[in-house]
């Protein structure tokens, strides 16, 4: 498949808010609304959710990179859209609940996507934008990237970003971000566990794509089983987690590629994957 970028349009949008490019088994999704700080507007969330649904059904896509245009990775929810509903009869309650439900649908779609997703972060990722990074399986940050959950500073605790942060960071690190609402520099974000790697500014995308290509080279049987199992067992108690993981691993052992991989090790040769 060509690596040329293509638009993933949204009905009624003047220009695509998300673009895609393909290089072999690696698909890159790019937030393309830099003039609005790549905020997670209704259109942006719809475009990303739609793109992820298409990717989930595309077995030729083996890994996904989530990047952004401009100096801001994502500033979180579109505050202008939110404030526009303050005058509703219910003061915006129904709209707020709906938009947050859409956001949760997007974040869980990333977690539940069969393919691994790697965030490539340059610039700032704040509030739900930080949540977007935390929802990805891996994250690479340029050294000038910064992260923040600043809701507490404007009278609005970052409750939904809290869900993703608390599942990635140690409790006290997550609470520090949520309670202080202060900027976290890239290297500190790596230490906290929000990102995996910090690279020179401008190199986040190429590094994330290189990681994605390495994942794409592997059999997709253990990759897809493993990603799903990782998040499932995280919600279980220790005994249930081991019982569940044992069942999934036994299923994995029955796969053709597991037989091939073990045979290749014993024969001291490179394996030949068939993704089954």
From TrEMBL:
Ligase recorded as keyword: no
InterPro entries membership: ClpP/crotonase-like_dom_sf (IPR029045), Enoyl-CoA_hydra/iso (IPR001753), Enoyl-CoA_hydra_C (IPR014748), Mitochondrial_ECH-domain (IPR052377)
Keywords annotated in UniProt: Fatty acid metabolism, Isomerase, Lipid metabolism, Transit peptide
Example GO BP: fatty acid metabolic process
Keyword Magnesium appears in the UniProt entry: no
Pfam families, per the entry: ECH_1
Gene3D superfamilies in the cross-refs: 2-enoyl-CoA Hydratase, Chain A, domain 1, Lyase 2-enoyl-coa Hydratase, Chain A, domain 2
GO molecular function: hydro-lyase activity; isomerase activity
Domain of life per record: Bacteria
The family this protein is said to belong to: Belongs to the enoyl-CoA hydratase/isomerase family.
Task performed by this protein: May play a role in fatty acid biosynthesis and insulin sensitivity.
Protein name: Enoyl-CoA hydratase domain-containing protein 3, mitochondrial
Species per Swiss-Prot/TrEMBL record: Xanthobacter autotrophicus (strain ATCC BAA-1158 / Py2)
